Amino acid sequence: MAVRATVSRFPADPDAQESSGLPWGLTVTPFASKDENGQSPVYGSDGHLLPRCENCYAYFNTYCELDQWAWNCSLLEGSDDEMTQARPVYVAAVDLSSSEEFLELTRSALLAALEAVPPGALFGFATFSHKIGLYDVQGAIPVVKNVFIPADTEGSLPIELEDVMPLSQFLAPVETFKENITSALETLRPTTSWERTAGAGQGLDGVLMGGRGFGTAMEALFNYLGSEYGNTFALGRVFAFLSGPPDHGAGQLDTRRYGEQYASKGEDADRALLPEQTPFYKDLAAVAVQAGVCVDLFAITNEYTDLASLKFLSIESGGSLFLYSNTDESTLPQDMYRMLSRPYAFNCILRLRTSSEFKPGHFYGHFFPDPQYENVQHIICCDSYATYAYDFDFANAAGFSRHTSEQPMLQIAFQYTVVVPPEELSSAGLGSSSRGKYSLKRRLRIRTLQFVTAQNINELYDNVDPETVLSVLVHKVILASLEQGVREGRMLLHDWLVILTAQYNEAFKLVQYKNGNSVMSQIDVEFLQCPQLQRLPRLVFALLRNPLLRFHEEGVHPDYRIYLQCLFSALEPSSLHRAVYPLLMSYSTPDKQAYPRHSLSRAALITSGSPIFLLDAFTTIIVFYSSTADPALPFPPPQDCLLRTTINKMKQDRSITPKLIFIRGGKEDATAFENYLIEEQDVDGSGLTSVMGFVSFLEDITQSVLEYMK
Prior knowledge:
Elements: E1 2-5, E2 9-10, H1 14-20, E3 25-29, E4 65-66, E5 71-72, E6 77-85, E7 89-95, H2 100-116, E8 122-128, E9 131-136, E10 143-148, H3 161-164, H4 167-170, E11 172-173, H5 174-186, H6 193-200, H7 214-226, E12 236-242, H8 261-265, H9 269-272, H10 280-290, E13 293-300, H11 307-315, E14 321-324, H12 332-341, E15 344-354, E16 358-364, E17 368-369, E18 376-383, E19 388-394, E20 409-420, H13 422-427, E21 439-450, E22 452-453, H14 457-462, H15 466-484, H16 486-507, E23 511-514, E24 517-520, H17 536-545, H18 558-568, H19 573-580, E25 583-589, E26 592-598, H20 602-608, E27 612-616, E28 620-625, H21 642-652, E29 659-664, H22 671-674, H23 693-709
Parallel strand pairs: 2-22, 7-8, 7-12, 12-13, 13-14, 28-29
Antiparallel strand pairs: 1-3, 3-19, 4-5, 6-21, 8-9, 8-11, 9-10, 15-18, 15-20, 16-19, 17-18, 20-21, 23-24, 25-26, 25-27, 27-28
């Protein structure tokens, strides 16, 4: 379990926290394979026997005071022996109202999935369009049975899927029927325009619709699988491949809201396109959870699909949302393999307890609160990268007492279930009776942390973790954007930096007062007195230039914005830092690094004089050869060089597969690379300014600080 606080020394009281201008909170990656210092967890058994405090129910830990007969609560990892049989279940649902290119990519992704799923897993294969198709791959040749989807928005299937094909026929053991599943994938063909017209009938305003009955198909699949929840499986994973917006049957979406009408109505497009247009998919996620199903949604499309409505089906069922704007450069097969190769926990409960002086304020991430207990969150499915955030409030005005030796404490308990493969059980000495069978184990991770309080503002500023500050800020601006629009999210971020800068200048006595008015010798907007704060202005500038917060008029697709919201709100702090402010390094040859870090500006490229640049923007990695590079340098770089080793390490350490691009400056279009050189761009996207973007941004912050302090 990895835990990172925004400040490693906590503010002493509400006044100290208020005057610092810093967010106070932490991020937690509960199922991480190592903690924030790279340490692996310590395992033990009989976790259910751990002593607990009678008052607050916190677990016994090494910070508790002991005497001969008792222990005092200060506010290990254990596992109990609850084991039941279950098999991993995976179901693919493929959109046939699509193109041959879409189906070819989906085929590649599912072939990768078949290689990644564990032996003994069960696999089901379904298709949807104006009808839903169920494949039986357990016979000599694959057989598909279809049911037509009613066109009306309130309709459901005329027959239960169990009556079309028994679930035991639909879910096939992968190791036995892998070849048959592959054969079934080869039979996929897009529905013809004639079929769609006949099946879909007239759509909105008499326009013929595409016949993509996604909502009805998903609801039917969840009810179908739910009959075996708790018997055949403990968690079923559905992979839904979508090539456009649902436009047939229940859950169809009106995509006309994306277009010129917002300009004509004078509406804020950024605000209008962020909320869901129907609660259908939020409600459907609840149906999925009740059926023990987690949905991963793969949207492969460049048309408006309204992910603002669809996202709930994935994130509220514990799944992930992926968006690929075209089939040519998609990393879908690699993402699929990567996702299924890493361990995951499910039916998780995350509980945060604090010492009495402070309490959790807001919670951020893809989890939902317990309806009964405070500070308890439920997570349907969680992998080793999934990260959540909290911010804190003081319980009273006194804060942490300076007159006692007691320090702020917090404890995070994470209870979860894992599917344990047979080989792991036999190596653990659990006998031959379990051979060939998967078992469920309920486990518990506990992390207890003690913090020190900062004696003064300098100490607080010296112990800032800028990456974790960025994480909490991103959560806050996403929330503000969803509730009040992108413009409001940008203002919140801008105002936060202004207030932080003003508080810092006050704290370091960079402000003098005459006759009650503040007089500045010079405002320090670069935090020259405090190294830990120096990265924050650049991070805020970069976040304002990120598509997450750029305006609709700049050509930011609303679905891409939603995808980034879902991605960013689940990333751990270091990955989020890369995604917001990419890492740019240079090489003198493919085997020799020149500089480990440059600012994102053209000036940095020119002054470095290096011929090769490597840019890591988390979702994209670019190798750029400058136009002045020696033609004798090998392009692209050879597989066995230092540059390639660095790229491979970058690709290994992340939750998604980054797109790798090689560009030769002067010979190929360098726009993809130059777009990341943000420091000469104007912060609000109105084009290149007469002065450099980041410099003028700091000047604007200076003026805003002056006004704020007046």
